[in-house]
Design brief:
Number of helices: 7
Largest sheet: 5 strands, parallel
Structural class: alpha/beta
Shape: globular
CATH topology of the largest domain: Rossmann fold
Bound molecules: cobalamin
CATH superfamily of the largest domain: Cobalamin-binding domain
CATH class of the largest domain: Alpha Beta
Strand content: 5-15%
Radius of gyration: 16 Å
Oligomer: single chain
Helix content: 40-55%
Number of strands: 5
């Protein structure tokens, strides 16, 4: 319900019919809507069995509505999500992975200009914390492109994010 509305706003913004204030007002309305959904859902009880997931919107990108939906769904599945927020530097992601012993990292990017930061974050993670798997998503990405920038998995929406986590932890159980 919220997402088609945002798509319509995005299209009008692209056509020059809407401007930044309208974009911001729509984002605020959606945020308020999701806050209501969240408050009605009750608290998910996270398991702490080696299934921590670090989640972030990459550096330079402040779009976090999609990431927040992914987080909500992963939490509902019982995963412990360490949400670093938006505009997150690659080094901060590496630090959080080490701190929480996370083996799976989710990254979100909504702009063509910030996919580069996503690529840098993936490279730094693979170099500094080998064995960490990265799954990515966001409107600008495709499965092909995700592979090209070194991601281990691509999810087109939050439901796929949950399936990726399920598959990953089933194949890599905590020792
Ligand atoms: C809302 C919005 C904003 C809000 C963001 C508020 C917020 N807190 O997020 C505000 C007003 C702040 C904003 C600002 C800007 N925006 Co804006 N924005 C949008 C808009 C309308 C909707 C994005 C959105 O939330 N979609 C809904 C969510 C649910 O979808 P989603 O993010 O894709 O997430 C889903 C999947 O992709 C996936 N997913 C997402 N993340 C992840 C992560 C993982 C791990 C996985 C598995 C899956 C996954 O699951 C989600 C749920 O199904 C889009 C247009 C559009 N239709 O996409 C433009 C858009 C993204 N913005 C755009 C631009 C240009 C900007 C600005 C630069 C504008 C400006 N001139 O200042 C700034 C950017 C500032 C910055 N540095 O980031 C462009 C980007 C163009 C491009 N291709 O690079 C777009 C496409 C608009 C357009 N058509 O031109 N924006």
């Amino acid at each position: 319900m919220f997402i088609p509305a945002l798509d319509a706003v995005g299209e009008r913004f692209e056509r020059g019919e809407f401007f930044l204030p309208q974009l911001m007002a729509s984002a605020e309305a959606v945020k308020a809507g999701f806050d209501v959904v969240r408050s009605r859902q009750g608290e998910a009880v996270p398991t702490d069995d080696g299934t921590a997931i670090v989640l972030a919107t990459v550096q330079g990108d402040i779009h976090d509505i999609g990431k927040n939906i992914v987080r909500m769904l992963l939490e509902n599945y019982g995963y412990r999500v360490i949400d670093l927020g938006r505009d997150v530097a690659p080094e901060r992601v590496v630090q959080a992975v080490r701190e929480h012993g996370a083996r799976l990292v989710g990254l979100s990017a909504l702009m063509t200009t910030t996919v580069r930061a996503m690529e840098q974050t993936i490279a730094l993670l693979h170099e500094q914390v080998p064995g960490t798997a990265v799954f990515v998503g966001g409107a600008v990405l495709t499965a092909d492109y995700a592979r090209k920038i070194g991601a281990d998995y691509y999810g087109k929406d939050a439901a796929e994010a949950a399936r990726i986590a399920e598959r990953f932890f089933a194949a890599h159980p905590a020792i």
